Amino acid sequence: MRVEITVNGQPHSREVEPRQLLVHFLRDTLSLTGTHVGCDTSSCGACTVMLDGAAVKSCTVLAAQADGCSVTTVEGLGGPDGLSPVQEGFRQCHGLQCGFCTPGMVMAATALLTERPDPSEQEIRDGLKGNMCRCTGYQMIVESVQWAAANGGAR
Amino acid sequence: MIGSAVPRKEDAALLTGRGTFVDDIHRPGLLHMVYVHSGEAHALITRIDADAARALPGVVGVWTAKDFAELPARPSVPGLERSYLAGDKVHYVGEPVAVVVATDRYLAADAARAVRVEYEPLPVMATVADALAPDAVPIFAPLESNLALEQQVTPHDVADELDASPHRLRARLVNQRCAGAPLEPYGVLADWTGAGPTIWATVQAPHRVRAEIAERFGLARHLVRVIAPDVGGAFGVKSSFMPELFLAPELSRRLSRPVKFVETRGEHMVHTYHGRDQIQEVEVGFDDEGTILALDVTLTVNTGGVPDPVGIALATLTSYMLGGCYRIPKIAARFRSVVTNTTPTASYRGAGRPEASFLIERVVDLVARRLGKDPADVRRVNLVQPGEMPYQTPFEGIVYDEADYPAALDLLLSRLDYAGLREEQERRRADPGAKLLGVGLSTFVEMGGFGPTPLFEQFGYIGGWESANVRLQPDGSAIILVGTAPHGQGHQTALAQIAADELGVPFDAISVLYGDTAVVQEGIGTMGSRGMPVAGNAVRQAAADVAAKARLIAAHMLEAEGDDLVRVDAGFQVKGVPTAEVSLAAVAERSFKPHLLPAGTGLGLECTSYYEPSNLSYPSGAHGCVVEIDRDTGHVHVLRYVCVDDCGTVINPMTARGQIHGGVAQGIAQALYEKVSFDADGRPLAASLEDYMVPGMLDLPSYETHHIETKSSFNPLGAKGLGEAGATAAPQAVVNAVVDALAHLGVRDVEMPCTPERVWKAMHHAS
Amino acid sequence: MIPAGFSYVRAGSVQEALAELSRHGGAARLLAGGHSLLPAMKLRRAEPGVLVDIGRLRELSYVRRDGDQVAVGALTSHRILERDPVVAEHVPLLAAAARRIGDPQVRNRGTIGGSLAHADPAADLAAAVLALDGVLVARGPAGVREIPAGEFFTGPRQSALAADELLTEIRLPAAGGLAYAFEKFSRRALDWAVVGVAVQSRPGGRTAVALIGMGPTPLRAVAVEEALAAGTPAAEAKSLAARGCEPPDNAVASSSYRAHLAEVLVGRALAL
């Protein structure tokens, strides 16, 4: 089947199998490999992207379901001028180690700050509870999001 | 730069989705390989029917064990050779039985499901008790029983010392099976072009992988290129020699196309090796003050269905560390490694040492409880004193480096407000509406800086050293090639900090490369907390040699003696003559001009250094955990977690903090959440992240971190390593806190993970 | 993990969806948010031949006050339930339960109809709808029928919904201003309930108590409700929480611990 999906502002029209998962559409079809797959059960959040502005786990969405929609991936944050405030926060506060969960974590954090520009620690933890990190123990991720909130927010 | 909390060089790519993990790599003509895994824990394979699978669209082929009979066995315990795929029988659920290659990952998944395997079930022995029962049948064919290895680590027993002790007690402790569960599962991409393969793989020791692959294919090593690209966490579990490391290149060779294998998470949970899984039987003798006089320990390790050469012997490290940071005059230790119908076990963060630390720290608390003394006081009477360092333990060759264990404990107690917590605990015990409060201590020491070559050779490595090549570019910037293979530790950053200080080159003008055997000189890898204590010293030495040569060239340029020069920001200056100055860039450029160099000076500014540590290093510290327990549900909430760590010289306080946090998080996870378990039929009960309890953001606390910096005299940098310290310290800090909270109810132990149900049952079944 | 192949149809209307269901017989499954079905398909626990995507039927995403009831469209996402002012005012229990589901990403996609139709015995919304005495509106070839929540859940992941029926609406008696509570005990914050309790006071002083994780289906704690109706103090009535329940005994929790949790959580919910 044919799908038309706008990714990071670029429209794409592609023939896909109905069973193709959105995450594989992004990674394999469009070669946007920043979005990762960490589990099979919608548990880890490494595949988090924005679908029409809402954070979703792209391993649990069919490409077919995203037909006609707009997707933002980690590659769509920031720009030639540098990192987005959330990305910069993770760099400043060492919110990443191996970096594998990071794109999903950054997308979920961006979605959180869009809704709650000044979240408490509890709200950050609640807002990112669908994203697992095995390296950091999370505290420096919390600090990264706090840094971002104080330095430009969800931009 | 050493000691400065600079942001990491690694981050910009990883934060923008421009990292390169194995599954991100595409090669023209790429094929996808998947396994057919055993769904039976113990069974004979009577038939494999792959005809239907072969007929599916996009399927290139299906192979079984007999198709790889010519390939020499995987790295194995001599005499216990491991095949790539199960042959006549399967030993555990998840063991690969067949391999399928197709043109895309979807078609490969379909084909794998179409392969029909018929089994004749055999009795399943999912526990060591079952596997050691008198009527148990041997699981792994070369062995005549399920006792794969029995080792008396110490030649003597301590029966006399125990008999002579005023008090003695016995305990049986369980260090449960855990999964490393890095967020990126295992992956390999092999492309055999021309004379040999290039292999991108999620590994921790690319040169070792190269050696093992070259040996199996009868190739000279220069023809095999192994690249560890960005690796999404490893925690030891990416150091095992999984069959795909060899099958992917072999299939690429046969098919003349690149072949990629990437685990699914469900597959990772049963296929990649687990860690821990040790039963500890201990008897301790002590006096009225709690001074420990003798310790007798028998460890039983569940090695799983196919013994791994590292996993089978990890209890050696547990044995060496049994004394913890205490002066225990007599220790007797032995261990048994037992084959069962479960996934094999091998390294997981700490690999043998957390088990030891858990044992001795639980024992100290049990001793304190028996004597009615405060656990802090019992620790204090047993701690090795700073004046006794370096401290020779009862184990030959195990010598602790400089540290101040009592100072770490004192700092911890003051940061905790220990006395205040004890008062609060009493107040809450008296108030039936309040949650119970518990405080747990863990004064720990572990091994870092693996390790002198004679030790590391025993784990199959060519050596225990590490290598670094430091090379100035003609513009004065520097490229460093290092033999480690980090996966989150931040070596690009920390090693550049070390080099910046030695070279006088700005941090931003240094790049650190690793993980490619075609680029990097021989190296060992990243495991055993060896980054800073071993690789850090290699970089330091190489950089110092380069700096010394730069000084000679600068002196020649300035027409002075080397000793007369001082280092300034830009380069070198003749002492006291600000106008006589030359930049490092000019020196670097000059180093490539043979006609302008002092006579006899070789071209370029480059040095390769191999650093062999004189011994292991011994990171130590004192961690404290405060928990509150819901009286109604048994739920444990970690209120505070306080760390005092002594990792020697801290290179980058920010990444050091990250390492401590991450290790502690995994330790708390072991204490409260995680366990890989199997039912009586050997079927895994935790084969996804829904069932295996990797904690999330709301499940873990914030951590308070403090450092005591006692430089190690065992290496010039004075670093001890810290990647495994948190995971070593935390489990018993938490368990001691849980037991402490319930002590007034008569509870003496709660097995890990201390789930609400277990805690609740302990509260209600304690005598 | 890859789902088996299927053909995909996007329904443009409820009529179209029903026609597709009829056309394919039992081979077709409805796809709403997909957060129950797609994971099952990836693990190949479900291999439907046809997926009928009803995710675009915006007409089924709404919350409306309708007399003394609140009507919730079956495709209303958990996220909307969390925030909708009508829900907050008239059936706040539903918002309290929605807030505890999974994580924000899951709540953005998951729908109330999908969750109920999947009939997981530990589904948070099921407890709320049961305690609210909701009525589930289904449309099929034979027309519309209303199924009381108490009759909807028939077994583990089994419901009274026929294979050719589509859940369109959930009708909930407005309960604004009345006491309610949702208590959930899970292993990790992210997890399904080990045991959960929804409590809703009714006009006239009756109290409804629903449990999840305590049997093959979400269920009502009838013994507790009757005891409360007879004037038994909550602190005593809670001890009847597990009466008549057959809680599962598995790796997540033993049946005895679940029974104990039910008592504790019912006690807490009733204390609010």
Task: Give a verbal description of the structure.
The complex is a heterotrimer of chains A (155), B (767) and C (272). Chain A is α+β, with helices and mostly antiparallel strands and 155 residues long. Helix content of chain A is 32%, strand content 15%. Chain A contains 5 helices and 5 strands. A 5-stranded mixed beta sheet of chain A has the order 2-1-5-3-4, sandwiched between helices. The longest helix of chain A has 14 residues, at 102-115. The termini of chain A are far apart. Chain B is built from 20 helices and 30 strands. Chain C has 272 residues and is of the alpha+beta class. Chain C has 12 helices and 14 strands. Chain C has helices at 14-24, 37-42, 78-83, 85-90, 92-99, 104-109, 112-118, 124-131, 149-152, 222-229, 234-237, 255-271; strands spanning 7-10, 28-31, 50-53, 63-66, 69-73, 135-140, 143-148, 153-155, 158-159, 166-173, 180-185, 195-201, 207-212, 219-220. In chain C, helix 5 (92-99) packs antiparallel against helix 8. Chain C is globular, with a radius of gyration of 18 Å. Chains in contact: A-B, A-C, B-C. Chains A and B meet through helix 1, helix 2, helix 3, helix 4 and helix 5 of A and helix 1 and helix 18 of B.
Short précis:
With 155 residues, chain A is an alpha+beta fold.
- Termini distance of chain A? 34 Å
Uncertain runs of chain B are: none
Number of extended strands of chain A: 5
* Low-confidence segments of chain A: none
Largest sheet of chain B: 7 strands, mixed
- Helicity range of the residues of chain A? 25-40%
SSE arrangement:
The complex is a heterotrimer of chains A (155), B (767) and C (272).
Chain A (H helix, E strand, L loop, with lengths): L1 E6 L2 E6 L6 H8 L18 E4 L2 E4 L12 E3 L12 H8 L9 H14 L5 H7 L11 H12 L5
Parallel strand pairs in A: 1-5
Antiparallel strand pairs in A: 1-2, 3-4, 3-5
Chain B lengths: L10 H5 L15 E7 L5 E7 L1 H4 L4 E6 L9 E4 L2 E3 L6 E2 L5 E7 L2 H10 L1 E6 L6 H4 L15 E6 L6 H6 L2 E12 L8 E7 L2 E6 L4 H12 L7 E3 L16 H12 L3 E4 L2 H7 L3 E12 L5 E13 L10 H6 L9 E10 L13 H19 L3 H8 L8 E2 L6 E2 L4 H12 L1 H13 L5 E10 L7 H5 L8 E7 L5 E5 L8 H13 L6 E4 L17 H28 L6 E3 L3 E4 L2 E7 H7 L15 E6 L8 E10 L6 E11 L6 H20 L31 E4 L17 H18 L13 H10 L2
Parallel strand pairs in B: 1-14, 12-13, 16-17, 22-23, 29-30
Antiparallel strand pairs in B: 1-7, 2-6, 2-8, 3-7, 4-5, 9-17, 10-15, 11-12, 11-14, 15-16, 18-19, 20-28, 21-22, 21-27, 24-25, 25-26, 28-29
Chain C lengths: L6 E4 L3 H11 L3 E4 L5 H6 L7 E4 L9 E4 L2 E5 L4 H6 L1 H6 L1 H8 L4 H6 L2 H7 L5 H8 L3 E6 L2 E6 H4 E3 L2 E2 L6 E8 L6 E6 L9 E7 L5 E6 L6 E2 L1 H8 L4 H4 L17 H17 L1
Parallel strand pairs in C: 1-3, 2-3
Antiparallel strand pairs in C: 4-5, 5-10, 6-7, 6-10, 8-9, 11-12, 12-13, 13-14
Helix pairs in contact in C: 5-8
